[in-house]
Design brief:
alpha/beta; Four Helix Bundle (Hemerythrin (Met), subunit A); Rossmann fold; 3 domains; flat; binds guanosine-5'-diphosphate; binds zinc ion
């Protein structure tokens, strides 16, 4: 792996704004001289040292603590200096400017974590979980991120890689000694072991999918004719008056989005302009946007006024909905029809009867949204996965299945096992190309 660049980087590590303290972090090779200049004396390693931070002309900038972490016992694996001053934006800028004056350059987003990765302090999945932990928007997401950060996901990934390496050695040995009497593979129960890896990958993928839900949530789009109660339903789900509700058809002309949480899963719910034939130009634009939203949906909730039932207009909407996307039909306004709320499952096509306005049956909709999302409450063992991890796990699983299909063509089997290992390795970054690293770390905040 390429060695990290060895210049000195600095950044304000604490959040912008005012706080009790603020931290400037510096990383690079051989920082003891810089630490001595900033601290007024050579600091003891890993001991908080009270310091007056001074400018080039000896003016006082701030007083605070200086911490010096010599390599390799630091976050980045390089020498690291932390300056803890008062957490005001101006004083932090002055401290940072002083560091730049002394030869540091401003760190790029994620550059500290990138160096930690390049120096083997963290693998890639752990490095990503640093960003995930910082960005976690729910307690469940934060718990999951910190578990990945401490390496529990990486450990499972490594376990699979090790088992793949064992198998590959076995298959390659069999290829190298084709005339041996013993059937190495049968003896070592190779096929069973490949099956086991396939099940492990499937289980991991399932937990990763749950984590991906927790992390990114689900896009839900409410569609239906004007006045069926889409905006009322969004309000009800969001628990506040967000969308404008009126009884004039065509009021919601633009898409309104609201993010709510159900059991910690973020649901991005979009209310849309009612779908109908119209000559109103503004309304037409709203309807065009609705179709764009529908293209991006994970789940479509189609609303119908229970009193009118499914009409030709609903059938026309239905025919245009993309195939393969989950849908739930809601018969709304049961309060006006004297019905009770209920759930009807007709060969997998689920309909809910509820009242957006009166609130009856809303819990049925919440449960149904989680069900179609595939959420099954794994609890603590979910993995806060990124799309990249899901792709790698799916790819590895596909290779394993092909390896099993090629049980009578050992060369092909060996190659598929190699590809599976490569895919799994990408998760922890063993075979990750530089440009991908650039993409991953550029999404971090500066100072991390
Ligand atoms: P949208 O055009 O589909 O967004 O429909 P709105 O949410 O704006 O609702 C249209 C009208 O139907 C408003 O007067 C709502 O108060 C009313 N409405 C919506 N849902 C219900 C319901 O469940 N019961 C009753 N009685 N009225 C409802
Ligand atoms: Zn509306």
């Amino acid at each position: 792996m390429a060695r990290p660049p060895s210049d000195v980087i600095a950044a304000i590590a604490t959040a912008p704004g005012r706080g009790g303290i603020g931290v400037v972090r510096i990383s690079g090779p051989n920082l003891s001289a810089l630490a001595a200049t900033l601290g007024g004396k050579v600091p003891e390693a890993r001991v908080a040292c009270f310091t007056r931070f001074r400018s080039a002309d000896d003016g006082l900038i701030d007083e605070g603590l200086l911490l010096y972490f010599p390599a390799p016992n630091s976050f980045t694996g390089e020498d690291v200096i932390e300056l803890q001053g008062h957490g005001g934006p101006v004083v932090m800028q002055l401290l940072l400017a002083r560091c730049l004056e002394l030869g540091a350059r401003l760190a790029e987003p994620g550059e500290f974590t990138r160096r930690a990765f390049l120096n083997g302090k963290l693998d890639l999945a752990q490095a990503e979980s640093v960003a995930d932990l910082i960005e976690a928007s729910t307690a469940a997401a934060a718990r999951s991120a910190v578990r990945s950060l401490t390496g529990s996901f990486s450990k499972e990934v490594h376990g699979i890689v090790e088992r793949l390496i064992d198998l590959r050695m076995l298959v390659e040995a069999t290829l190298d000694f084709p005339d041996e009497d013993v059937d190495f593979l049968a003896e070592a129960r190779a096929l069973e072991r490949i099956q086991t890896i396939a099940s492990e990958l499937e289980a991991l993928l399932d937990r990763a999918r749950q984590g991906s839900l927790l992390r990114s949530g689900l896009h839900v789009v409410l569609v239906g004719q004007p006045n069926v109660g889409k905006s009322s339903l969004l309000n009800r789900l969001a628990g506040e008056e967000r969308a404008i509700v009126t009884d004039i058809a065509g009021t919601t002309r633009d898409a309104l989005r609201e993010t709510i949480q159900i059991e910690g899963i973020p649901l991005h719910i979009t209310d849309t302009a009612g779908l109908r034939d119209t000559t109103d130009e503004v309304e037409k634009i709203g309807i065009a946007r609705t179709w764009q939203e529908i293209e991006r949906a994970d789940v479509i909730v189609r609303l119908v006024d229970v009193r009118a039932g499914l009409t030709d207009a609903d059938a026309a909407i239905d025919a245009r909905l993309p195939a393969g996307v989950e849908r739930i039909t809601v018969f709304n306004k049961v309060d006006l029809a004297g019905h009770d709320a209920k759930r009807v499952d007709a060969d997998g096509a689920v309909s809910l009867y509820l009242s957006a306005k009166a609130g009856q049956g809303i819990e049925l909709l919440r449960a149904e949204l989680l069900r179609v999302a595939g959420w099954h409450r794994h609890g603590e063992d979910i993995i806060l996965a990124r799309e990249r991890h899901l792709i790698a796990l799916r790819e590895a699983l596909a290779c394993i299945h092909r390896a099993l299909d090629n049980r009578h063509a050992l060369e092909l089997m060996a190659e598929e096992l190699r590809l599976a290992q490569e895919a799994v390795n990408e998760i922890t970054g063993e075979f990750t190309p530089d440009d991908l690293l650039g993409v991953i770390f550029s999404r971090f905040c500066i100072g991390k």
